[in-house]
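Slide 14.
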Amino acid sequence: DKDYIVRNGEIVIIDEFTGRMMPGRRYSEGQHQALEAKEKVQIQPENQTLSSVTFQNYFRMYSKLAGMTGTASTEAEEFNNIYGLDVVEVPTNLPIQRIDEDDEVYRTGEEKFKAIIEEIRAAHERNQPVLVGTTSIEKSELLATMLRQTGFENFQVLNARYHEQEAYIVSQAGVPGAVTIATNMAGRGTDIQLGGNVDMRLERELEGMEPGPERDAKEQAIREEIKVLKEKALAGGGLYVIATERHESRRIDNQLRGRSGRQGDPGRSKFYLSLQDDLMRIFGSDRMDSMLQKLGLKEGEAIVHPWINKALERAQKKVEARNFETRKNLLKYDDVLNDQRKVIFEQRLELMEADNIGETAADMRNEVIEALVGKHIPENAYAEQWDIEGLKAGVQQSLNLDLPLDDWAKEEGIAEDDILQRIAEAADKVMADKAERFGPEVMTYVERSVILQTIDHLWREHIVNLDHLRSVVGFRGYAQRDPLQEYKAEAFELFQALLANLREAVTAQLMRVELMVDTPAPTELPEMTAHHLDPVTGEDEFAIASAAGADIYVPPEQRNPNDPATWGKVGRNEACPCGSGKKYKHCHGVFEQA
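Slide 15: predicted structure.
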């Protein structure tokens, strides 16, 4: 209930910044499977990364970059370093009347939550709407449970569990006396209006009502009621934002604080902290706890001072700087992959848009042949030093050709260029024959499909290889080597190997591909007819019966002697169904012949 939740038998990750669920996202390296085992839900297979890009390199693809947010100023350095963007602070439309109070620091989490509950009750009694911000689902539900234990039931909980009602809960958080407990309030997209949101209430309460005087009267009543409620909320001091913890990032705290005091409205905000909070541990909270006990800080008492606020802000800056350094380091490594990514995807686009793929396939084939000959017949080597057996095996494997290389090597005065040319001509002839048999359109389709599928398969493997390389390259630092430079060098070698594998795999597949023409299965069975020739007359008994309209065979026991319509198809030499004891041809069959 902090990093993930269990929902419908699945582990769903929660975004630490927005507090929202991220369905479809899975932890890698087997971590997700471990969590599934821990929570006793069905273990699903590992996701395979088909392609990847960091947000930074994704945003850099745009020709223009700009954005608007109320909390960019704390991240100005990162915007400048990564994207070359300046941050400009735009003044608010109306002067801010919100009162931002100093943080209150308690020794234990229990004391902190008791103080928060007292503050919520006091604000509720004076009809002041309260928004309580928590850092996780776990904390929001703990606070809700503690409130219920004190007999306070009049509140709403907004977290990833109840995201379906998110917009309505947020829209009504400004009603006088309303108490809303929410995980990170970033990007909720619905403004908290004092007195409640008119549009949301009209949509919900007038749903299904036909247009007319009754609907208009109800709409007017709702608008009047919200005006009165807004005056009440303003008299109570506007929205009161209570935060239960400082986040690692000042930006998230500012987003929560900024929900109050919108468009010149009055408001208050206060952060409640304890020495047991994650961020406070950076200060060495154990030493601070013992010091505060010596100074005589009693249970339920808090430290409140502007210096505390500044010290906390410095701690947050340290954490932000560390996180930024991590992201910057990650980006340095991703820039290496990004250069390779551009090459691969540009090549894919060219292949998809090209009309004739034959030239690309021929170039790959020629490079494979050159590599094979270069490997087994070293330059300026004597004929005795040639590895003809190895070359023959390589040609068989890569080109699917059985060539008399032994005989060629024995010819007087033959050079490696001659062998290269002969292998290339044999391969070109095979491909030319295929092109003629397949036709130009089919051949182009086959070549494009094979190349694209091979690129995609090898690129997936390459991403996995680079991930593994990046996870271990840090150890090179122990040998006084720069891990980033080592990563660049090895990533380049892996990319060269990828291109060589691509040429070999494409060539091997195209040299082996054959066109199978499937004969379409008949859509329906052909009509079946039966014939029986009389040995004496030579007449077709079944044809006569069929001509009489009796084309269906009926078993003798189902025939009615008195109703010829039930007899069906009767053979001329069969006993007549009428029961006369004569053959059908000498009895009722005589009438059919006539």
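Speaker note: The chain has a mean pLDDT of 82.
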